[in-house]
Q: What sequence folds into this?
């Protein structure tokens, strides 16, 4: 009897060992900027990617072990080339995910294309990246030219402004650059009555705000960082400036701290957004809460994009016929799924190829919370328009 | 044994029949008789229901992005109307170039346009026209180029088409307009909320 038990145990052990030995290890290259001036965003991306990986690794095919190979993507394009080459040639990855800086992502994408290794970009915005006909390059996030669409749609159908005043911090590069806002307003036929560029360290905006008040614009648009965003809106209240809407072009106006620091003064201020936890997609709020609990910080849209990229990777590996570069590319090309940032399907339109199409949003601050109010069918609450005035705060 | 060519011919005929069937369905559900006294352009915005008469819509020809001759519109008139459009069925798409679902729908309408133009039974009878609510010609130009659209679009910066889609309704908004039995140029009607929510992909 004892011999029988020993034989059984031995057989089970051998079977386990043989499974482990035959289990395939799939290497996925992950490129984020983990040092340098983009490290803050890169680490949010990495942490979000890890949250997603832990949650969905059980969905991977049986007998397959996924190994994520994180490399710090240098912010200098020339160094990024060797990092990408290393990932592909030395580490033997089946696909690469990540990116943020467009200059760097551009170089990485061209390397991926020349090696015929699928590259899923989750955050780089340069339009031209998906206009090269690169068949191994896919982009999950919207291109830069589409970031302001939610705001432009709202302006042209709800606000219908004649005049706009723009305040912009020097060097601001938010979701919608102030230069692009000026161009969009001109093309849309709105008259820009004030266009004021200020230094980031400015704290007193009263003089320019008085000028704005004299012009009575329909829209006051602001391209600001956090502290200047708070100062501007507080001083608008002090001077009783009452346009139809106040709108931030992302930046400080889309940060949770804005609601905390400005308090009720932030009420009814709009901001453009490409993701926030109130978007109506499964898992979006849960991701936000898990991230907050684990890292004691709020994830931004780069984090959500990274999480969604991991969801796409899991889906692609499940559907791929095998783990060759070609098979994974084909699976990516046939992606049709839901993610925390919305539906994912890589399509061609105009000059773009293999570009996921996503809407952009408008959020409105109400009692310290950002609510998605536009587009209408994705809104969690009805927008408040026009600005009801400071007494209604 | 059926030859490959015969098979192809057969499939082509079936596709044509399906397309004609779909268009006939649209004609049936989306239209009614056009009254002789069209709703003045200055009327307040209101909801149109399926079968309602179509409002009078002036079209400034110099602003049109696309081919005027496709719609059969005269080149020498500054303003024309929907009545002047030479079609048995007009798919009128009220869109906004910045609106995400409009962009998606416009891509599908472009495919539909190509299918119609390739169908001998429908070419010249069914036409597509976009009206871009609140958009200038410049942004419409960019939109057509960025999305590779082929059907004509009329910029409507004056928000005239708002009077068609009704208060508080946003783009995209599809109307199907046909000529009536008396041969009046265009008869009105739309699928109200149904067409508003249907993508041309479904069509």
A:
């Amino acid at each position: 009897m004892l011999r029988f038990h020993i034989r059984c145990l031995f057989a089970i052990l051998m079977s386990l060992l043989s499974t482990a030995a035959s289990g395939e290890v799939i290497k996925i290259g992950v490129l984020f900027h983990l040092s340098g001036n983009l490290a803050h965003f890169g680490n949010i991306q990495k942490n979000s990617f890890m949250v997603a990986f832990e949650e969905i690794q059980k969905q991977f095919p049986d007998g397959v072990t996924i190994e994520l190979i994180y490399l710090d993507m240098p912010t200098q394009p020339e160094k990024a080339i060797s990092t990408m080459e290393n990932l592909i040639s030395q580490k033997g990855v089946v696909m690469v995910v990540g990116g943020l800086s467009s200059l760097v992502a551009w170089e990485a994408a061209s390397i991926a294309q020349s090696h015929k290794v699928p590259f899923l970009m989750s955050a780089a915005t340069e339009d031209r990246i998906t206009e090269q006909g690169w068949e191994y390059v896919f982009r999950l996030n919207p291109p830069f030219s589409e970031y302001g669409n939610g705001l432009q749609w709202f302006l042209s159908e709800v606000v219908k402004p004649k005049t706009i005043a723009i305040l912009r911090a020097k060097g601001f590069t938010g979701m919608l650059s102030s230069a692009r806002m000026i161009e969009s307003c001109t093309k849309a036929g709105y008259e820009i009555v004030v266009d004021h560029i200020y230094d980031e360290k400015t704290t007193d905006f009263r003089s320019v705000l008085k000028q704005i008040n004299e012009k009575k614009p329909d829209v006051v648009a602001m391209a600001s960082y956090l502290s200047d965003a708070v100062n501007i809106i507080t001083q608008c209240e002090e001077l009783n400036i009452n346009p139809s809407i106040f709108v931030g072009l992302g930046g400080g106006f889309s940060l949770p701290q804005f609601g905390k620091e400005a308090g009720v003064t932030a009420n009814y201020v709009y901001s453009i957004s490409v993701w926030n936890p109130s978007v109506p997609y499964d898992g979006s709020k849960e991701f936000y809460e898990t991230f907050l609990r684990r890292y004691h910080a709020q994830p931004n849209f780069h984090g959500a994009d990274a999480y969604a990229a991991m969801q796409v990777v899991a889906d692609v590996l499940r559907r791929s016929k095998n783990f060759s570069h070609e098979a994974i590319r084909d699976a990516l090309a046939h992606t049709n799924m839901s993610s925390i940032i919305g539906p994912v399907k890589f399509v061609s339109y105009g000059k773009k190829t293999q570009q996921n199409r996503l809407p952009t949003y408008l959020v409105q601050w109400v009692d310290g919370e950002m609510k998605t109010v536009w587009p209408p069918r994705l809104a969690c609450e009805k927008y408040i328009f026009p600005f009801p005035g400071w007494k209604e705060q | 044994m059926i030859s490959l060519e015969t098979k192809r011919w057969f499939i082509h005929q079936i596709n044509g029949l399906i397309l004609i069937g779909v268009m006939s369905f649209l004609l049936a559900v989306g239209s009614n008789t056009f009254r002789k006294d069209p709703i003045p352009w200055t009327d307040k915005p209101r909801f149109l229901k399926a079968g309602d008469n179509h409002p009078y819509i002036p079209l400034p020809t110099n602003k049109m992005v696309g081919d005027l001759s496709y719609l059969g519109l005269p080149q020498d008139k500054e303003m024309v109307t929907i009545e002047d459009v030479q079609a048995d069925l007009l798919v009128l798409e009220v869109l906004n170039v910045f609106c995400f679902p409009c962009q998606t729908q416009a891509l599908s309408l472009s495919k539909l346009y190509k299918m119609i133009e390739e169908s001998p039974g429908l070419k010249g009878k069914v036409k597509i026209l976009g009206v871009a609510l609140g958009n200038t010609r410049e942004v419409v130009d960019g939109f057509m180029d960025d999305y590779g659209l082929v059907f004509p679009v009329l910029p409507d910066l004056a928000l005239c088409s708002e009077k068609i889609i009704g208060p508080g309704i946003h783009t995209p908004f599809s109307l199907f307009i046909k000529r009536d039995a008396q041969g009046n140029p265009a008869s009105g009607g739309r699928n109200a909320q149904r067409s508003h929510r249907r993508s041309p992909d479904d069509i």
